[in-house]
Fold these 4 entries.
Entry 1:
Amino acid sequence: MSLEISREFVEAILEQSRAEYPEECCGVILGPVGSGKATRMKPMINAAHSPTFYEFDPKDLLALYREVDDFDEEIVVIYHSHTDTEAHPSRTDIAYAGEPGAHYVLVSTREEIAPETEFRSFRIIDGVVSEEPVITL
Amino acid sequence: MSIEVRIPTILRPFTKDQKIVSATGSTLAEAIANLDNQYPGIGEHLLENGALRRFINVYVNDEDVRFSGALETALKSGDSITILPAVAGG
């Protein structure tokens, strides 16, 4: 298993994480159902507006799933940023991970590595985290 | 009295992979009890201490039930329930 993602999306996610710092940023990348391809990025609002937590607004969440259904898409990537810790799923990330088919992408903008950033991808299934290689296209 | 219920991916193992199932009940609490009768075990993924779980979003006809009475939300035949786990984390 690996995540294949265009350089453009990687850059866009990193840029969003910097722009929304010190809050965590979040969003999804969608793709045609069954393809597993990440083709359409959709930044989401972090309704928690927090440096340590993110949550899609419940209204936006419903609209997102309706849109995904209407366009015969699926959620291929769910991404968010960590502002002060490494780009690895936290305990809460694991507890709330509700899309076993998605790649969970984490980026970190923590100060000790700035201006460098981390960009990593994981599967989170039944509470088990496995990291996977990121292949930039 | 039939209510359509849209099941999220993570709960489909309970519904034999069905995305849309039907339930009966005149309130959301009754519909969830009915759902749990049909698909044993699904209820505890929705409820905690007798209330909806904080990180489960339930909508009746696209309205978030947090604003319409939560488990007491009234249902009528033809209504549609959508269940979505929050996309959230730390």
Entry 2:
Amino acid sequence: MFDVRVSVRVCMMLVLAVMAAGCGGGERRQVIQNKGSDTLVNVAQAWAEAYQTIDSAVVVAVSGGGSGTGIAALINGTVDIANASRVMKTKEIDLAKSSGQDPKQHIVGYDALAVFVHKDNPLGSLTLAQLAEIYGDGSSVDSWSDLGIEVPGCRNQEMVLVSRQNNSGTYAYFRGAVLGKERELRLGTRDMHGSKDVVDLVEKTPCAIGYSGLAYSTDHVGMICVTSEEGKSCVDPTVATASDGSYPIARPLFMYTNGEPEGHIKTYLDWILSDVGQCIILKKGYAPVRGVSCGD
Amino acid sequence: MSRSSVTDFDRRNRDWYIDRLVQAVVFIGGISAIVFIIGIFVFITREGFSFIATEFDVSGFFLSQNWRPTSESNPTYGILALVAGTASVTGLAMLVAIPFSLGAAIFIAEFATGRVREVLKILVELLAAIPSVVWGFIGLSIMNPLIIEWFNVPVGLNVLNAGIILGLMAAPIMTSIAEDALKAVPDRYREAAEAMGATRWQVIAKVVLPAAKNGLLGAVLLGVGRGFGETMAVLMATGHSVNIPTSIFDSVRALTATIAAELGETAVGSPHYQALFTIGIFLFAITFVINLTADLIVRGIRNK
């Protein structure tokens, strides 16, 4: 008896909701909850806004908070799509599986970590091994003269290392890509609190070297051409070299869904991976998953 | 007649209840500070406690400069460099702030009169109201290039930059308290000195300052407490670099700035999270002792 009454009430509420939606503007609106990486949040926002004009019946609600936050929300089942600038850890996948979720990974773009120096710095290229000697703990390279160059305006040729705070995804990726699993970054780096701060400090400091997302590059700083192995030719950080994988410190950007995407979520993801969607990520300074021609 | 006056006296009318209500509200307001401080202490202790109980070893924590909380293979939590950073920045800030605030306090309390005095007092209070993130921004975007240019050093985010910024931040509150201390010196001291033919400067240097010295010391200690606790400006102006400084042109990192920069993205309950709270307990203890000392010193002169 009680159950029936509850279900009647639920039915009435549903009817009311549908009627309200009907009065509001035609068919029912679908909401996609999208949360995670701060690296991706600007792009995700741009996608969500552009998608409004494609399909006004779907609303994408975007919020940031970091890759970990997005993945945690996916595990708890409170988002439809989690953005991440790193792969899910085995621990996180296990946790998701045990709470009945089945995370599926989609690469939606690439982010190249450019190595920035001051505009007046004559340094053209570095190998990954040299970068490791510059940033690694217990390393021997302290000054620009150790690399055989002289930087104008830099007193004592002392190298000023600019890095990120130790719990950012960018820091973790850079450490892994340049120093490997075991080695630590040296202490005494200037640890900036945002991608843009790194570029700003390097711009104003002749002695500085720093790493940050390619999307944050400006005309006022120099970017280093990076060689993956001795003897190979160096690769400039560009959108093209990031998407074809030839630039050695580029990371994929992910969206995670629960299970294979279906319905409006699948349509949205397909649209993101279409030429239109990929042109938006390109415009934001990240690399698309494949070559696209956008026209200007 | 007498009966009616007694009942008048006893009457619990509206005013009586309002009186009671106000008493209760004021009482709650009065004890709330104590409740909050105990609550905060319990909270940070609880969050940091299991770190202290398990991974904490005194020499590793206080005497090592290896702050690598996010290392995959071997995380270490040594705060020596962070303590050195906070101490060096606060020390330099006091060198900057003491002459400024003492000078301003002497001028406001002893020399300025009328409108000048009122305007100065308001301006000093206004200076105290500038948000610390604005100070930090000044350090980052104005002082940084200036220091590079003037002193020909590789980077302008260093002890000098943060020390000057923090000194300017601490000066207003130090000025206010120092001025109160100078005002508390009875006028008859000054009159007696002047009657004996002392010049105005002699009165200040030989009579007023010695008489106010406890209050002035209290002002300095409160400034030190401010320096230890300041976060945003030092985060932006120090360069945020784990490093024991050997000169004022070295970048450093402060205890508070470390908590601010790292707590946001740290998994709740992880050793890193608890280590940050342990730093919080340490900071709490230091500022508590400094403020208590300052308070006792200031109280000392009032009661004399």
Entry 3:
Amino acid sequence: MNPFSRPTQSWRPVIAVMAIAGLALLPAMGADAGHAAHDTAHAAAAHATASHGSDHGHAAVSAFSLKQIAHSYLTAYMFCLSLCVGSLFLTLAHHLFDAGWSASIRRVTETLASLLFPWMLILALPIIGFAWTGNLHAWFKIDPATDHALDVKKVLFNPAAFTVMVPVLLTLLGLMARNIRAWSIAQDKDGAAHWTTKSRKLAAGGIFFFAIGTTLLCFLLMKSLQHQFFSTMYGVYYFAGSVWTTLITLYLLTMWLAQPGRPLEKVYFKRQQQDLGVLFFAFTVFYAYIHFSQYFLIWNAAIPEETFWYVLREVGSWKWVGMTILFGHFFVPFLLLLNQDIKRNLSVMIPVGAWAWLMHYIDMTYNIMPVIHPDGLHLTLWDPIFWIGLSVLLARLFWSEYRKNPPYPQKDPRLQEAIVHHEVPAPGASAAH
Amino acid sequence: MSSNPSKPHGLLAEFHTAADIFEAAIRCRDAGFTKWDVHTPFPIHGMDEAMGLRKSPVGWFTFCGGFTGFFTGMTMIWYMNKFDYPLVVGGKPLFTPLFAFPVSYEMTILLSAFGTLFGMFFLNRLPKFHNPLFKNERFKKSTDDRFFICIESADPKFGLEATRAFLTEKCHAAVVELVED
């Protein structure tokens, strides 16, 4: 029986491409608007550094400006990129550790990761368009000679490097994911072990490229919105939040796919569920550790050139957004998931999953939005539109890719380890009596 | 040293495979034994359930240790930097949870680990210097290639002959008697 019974609807991706193309052309249509509010981030940063300035008001951006659309889109994009990047990491980690337990759910991460190319690349094109028209990164319009912070970072932060590196990084990461997935699918047919060996070799080198590539991507796309920043751990910060979000997504997705009559029913057990829950818990702590370290080092050194990034984020309601991340991203899930059995309790884990998505989105907002709204959190209609829109698009792309192939690696040498399941009869039900 | 040298400590049943002892553990559990244990050369997945073990309460000791550690760290730094000997360092506030956090965090880990270790000792009634099992020559193979179940005579359901018959006939094991010494 084919677990994916519905026929493919091939027109949906066409509409998606047209929508993205429309969005990519949007910045070109209103290119002039970008010049009007020149260099908001730069000005705001300068204010915060010089004095804890009170006149942030003039920097506010109207809800229908391209700047607002660009930043809302970038926030949603970084959220979706998290899921792809996190999935790629989990796939690589599976091969690096020669893991057994995750063999039965690996096709899900393989598929999500392979959306990096071409889909996340196509979705990144509007960002490049927004940047070129001066609606995102201030440094696209600043002469490095007039800005010391930019001058020392201009090797990386210049329009040409941005335009080349973002697509190239997404392509290379995506091709790595597609290769591993293609080998896994090839193994479904012949069951040869050499496909696994090939993936392991690629993962061994690929994990380094993954680390460098992901770091560069989040520096280029997100952190450099305020190019005066100082942080050596921003890459791992984005990585930690990404894998955190990916793990709970994977938890809920595989749980759903393992329901009776669905494709993972016979290969997904308590063990996979528990292990995903434990990893999610571990990354809750890891993310907090990384984010606290970044904050603490900057706070403790108290050098104005470094502190501005957080000083800006303590203005107005941003302070409460930060508190929401501290408590909502760490303390609430941490204390909730301390108990061993909770990690298999769906009436807790499903709300935690929805909460984690919200927290990661707020985390992305906290990183991106203070640039155009220095006074405090300012939500517009664009935020939910892009967040839900891109997430739904990603989900549909995932599903159309996932159903094309067997739902789990059919002849993986480690599959047997993943699905060994000890059926222990309940007390009183055994043959002893 | 015991007042009654022939008092039985329990029965030791020997198995050759993990599957055999797994089945036998389920039978022992369902027979209602409470003072018994399984000894294997390596961990066997699902054995907790097969033995009907409840979740270990050690986690509560860990939690209490961690909780104590966190607040000890915070209180210690508040006491030293703000209350007992106020000292401005680098223009920072006299107390904030921020700089107290790394210390509190390490204290959390340290006391969690102590809680886990000593909680486990307490629950297992350790340290204990002797167990009649150690005198049994065959039992040494439990670290090599044999699997053992020991049912103690302290178990309310224990009867020397009945339990021996249960282990040999229902569980198909080679059984030896252990005596207190």
Entry 4:
Amino acid sequence: MKVLFDHALREGAGGLFPSSDVPARTPSDVLGSDLVRARAPRIPNLCEGDVARHYTALSKLNYGVDDGIYPLGSCTMKYNPKLNEDVTRLPGFVGAHPRADEALSQGTLGLLYELSGLLRGISGMAAVTLQPVAGAHGELTGMFLFKRYFEERGEPGRTRVLLPDSAHGTNPASAAMAGFSVTEIRSNDRGTVDLDALRAELDSTVAGIMLTVPNTLGIFEENILEVTRAVHDAGGLCYFDGANLNSFIGRARPGDMGADVFHFNLHKTLSTPHGGGGPGAGAVAVSQPLVDYLPVPWIEKMGETIRLDWDHPKSIGSVHSFYGNFLVAVRAYAYLLQLGDAGLRAVSENAVLNANYLQERLKKTYPLPYDRLCKHEFVLSGEGLPNHISTLDIAKRLIDYGVHPPTIYFPLIVHEALMIEPTETEGRESLDRFAEILEAIAVEARERPELLHDAPTRAPVRRLDQTQAARNPILTYPFDKS
Amino acid sequence: MTYPAAFRYTKEHEWVEIKGKQARVGITDHAQAELGDVVFVELPSMGTVVKKGGHLGTVESVKAVSDVFSPLSGKVVAVNDSLESSPEMVNQAPHAEGWIVLLEISDPSEANGLLDAAAYQALIA
Amino acid sequence: MRYLPNADADRRQMLKSIGRESIDELFSDIPEEVLAKFEPLGLAPRSELEVLGELTRWAEASDAAKRVSLLGGGIYDHYVPRIVGHILGRSEFYTAYTPYQPEISQGTLTAMFEFQTLVCELTGMEIANASMYDGATALAEAVLMADRIRKRRRVAVAANLLPQFRRVLATYAWAAGIELVDVPFDASGRCAWDRAPHDVSGLVVQSPNAFGVIESLGGLKAALGDTLLIVVTYPLALGLLEPPGAFGADIVVGEGQSLGLPMGFGGPLLGLFATKGEYLRQLPGRVVGRTVDADGKPGYTMAAQTREQHIRRERATSNICTNSALCALAATVYLVSIGADGLRQVAELNLAKAHYLADGIGRLKGVRLAFDGPFFNEFVVRLTEPASAARRRLADAGFLVEDPNELESLGVKNSLRIAVTEQRSRKELDRVLSVLGGKR
């Protein structure tokens, strides 16, 4: 595949911009020659048709949710309604400048205000900020809130954050960025937090715990109330990573489980597409004791007017240039309005049913280390297949069958993990077909292992040499060598 | 791969070859095999003073990072610069050209707590 | 429900095949006490048609979008070529996840490689990541990175940094225990960097800065010794301006909204992050590299992943995972659609129009430019009448001008900041002059 720098140069971009209706200025006269660029950036000048074809060709090398099942565990790759995309293109939204007066921004501010109200209701918590723009950004905001809370309480010695060994990598990284150290809590043989191990760590140096609910094995912590009570009794706070909200939305609320901070991944649960890695939105809900510390500005209603309120001296400050990813919030709002309470309940119902259906069938073919009721996802193991077949081989062979592989090698507590999240937007036929493919691959692993070792052979490229990429990184186009 | 009888080993999979006041340190063949293709070795600065069990550097493969802990207390008197351009030496010759640092050791008696080749091989068996 | 394919009959059969009696049984692991407390939102489902109508009403209540914008301060009313939306609308791009499976993500990965190359070309740097959330968080990460490298727990920051950058940086620095030290600006509006302290890990300067003034970076790097130079840039201006890399910058960050993104009420935005090759292992965020496949054919994959949170966990260079990939694609398509020539042209249009307005203002009574430093497309006007009065008259004439409070917070009184992009016509600018000149 060509990169754009390989294309022949053409005449250029004439016609995009009008010629100037004010007198042209010579940059070096206006600015002085030392400020003016000596060498033009090497950006090719192409015809629009060349650009359209280049990126259309590139798009065809990608696999998206519209192509088929995308069972990446912990990622909630559900179908993204087209309406949500279209409403983000409304001129009143795209053309809104974030510095415009509040009085002229009632449509945009009002929508954000309404959405925070709905998210507050879904979480069952005291208040919501829409500023964080990704799950990890929500976690970081939550860790900032922890830090400010203990500063204000005069307990700066609470510097440790506890994490189960099944946690996402972003959790320890977020805690560390906020200046906390991390202590891992082992999981018990049921795949949940070991209460004794937890209690043994709880002392006056503990700021709190970060939990994923349900956890990354897809298992709901039945002892969630004991866990959060134990942490609260020890003076700590409870952070809930909301990556897996899809499994209980519309029927249970983190606020009722003891959460002090809960982040939503609007780009998972509330249908915003992932865009090949972003942008997302990581709205954060908090319990009453943390409200004062939320990022500024707050979006508040005064009479009939929605206002930006900066006057919160205990706030952690800001975590984003403006008010978070507004256009992602628009998608989430449109989605919630369409679904309503009944739709949200149907989302978790179908997400969990689909996962249990698939788990029950696939555990006959692949080891299921934690064999119990799951929520929206479950984790198989690729261990024990003959002919040195690894989970990576299974994943790559799935590509040859035209489906996206699950999350692999995570969580770390399962060897050769295959973490499968079908989501509610797959139907039974799609699940059956996916199961048939995984079953066929298990047969191939025994009878024709080369098909797995060599896979993929039907993708745009074969397996890529990651070692070379790491030892000799080429991170920009090598203009000088071509 | 054989584990030289003259070396001593740690449970964290480092080896150390002690000659008088100097000790050469690397990671074991077992460690490099577990890591896979080594793509980068972070070396300490010359003159770094390190305690037994302290952080000497890291060895990275494509998808894993492994710390190198010092088997003995001492001062770094040489580092294997050639690993900067050829990290694969850690895979190809972990007990020889793939060495990582040379220490001037401060307490030779610490070596008594290390494993011999037989004990190390029993550990990884 | 339109998005849920399982029919009731499917669900019954699926329940039966897993040996469960009811849907409720699937949730029996959630404590009764929790389930009992649940309260619905009181929200009835609505049709697509109704929701479209509702969202259209919200959008139409956004009056700002109907006015003529003179607003800037990091977000600008630039033209987005139509092709950008069409490419971004391809669902293969927008419905894909982070490219963890490179063999079926070559579209995203190739575009990210192009993006990194373009960012380096624009900024004059050697390596760039595949995007951060926005310019402000990119700056905060740059400061954390500089302090990882120099470890002095203090960073100097130009006082003429845009406040949204400063606010976010202050939050991150507080949590990391890094002290920020202000460096004042002089009468030209430029950072008086000769007054920066030396025992700091880095110095942050923004160019053009919060006053629109282009900083003089020549000689700065040499004067800093081993303090890292962090420059916050405005990428569209780099079509015309000498890039920070040419002045020896160690880290260059910026807000990429000017490159083909709508203003969108301030999000999603695009954080740009570029640095020197020697700092690759300290770089935050995802980066894409070129390699070969099993047949020796070129391909792209995520590179240097051992820096990242999914491998290094609490010792990662950042916690970032989801970034602004689709916005980076927009910037890539934007730059490629206009080309080097078009970028120069649009930058020159901004320069010419802003200077046309500034020159006209210079001829008015009771108004003058607040700073004499060179500027690109944004400048500060100092008034003899109260700034809020002049602003009200401009607003009455249909123009959006920023609240003077922000400039006041930087110590610049009775002034308005005005940005002029290629979208403003001479007619509009003449109208601004007549309103400011007091003619109705």
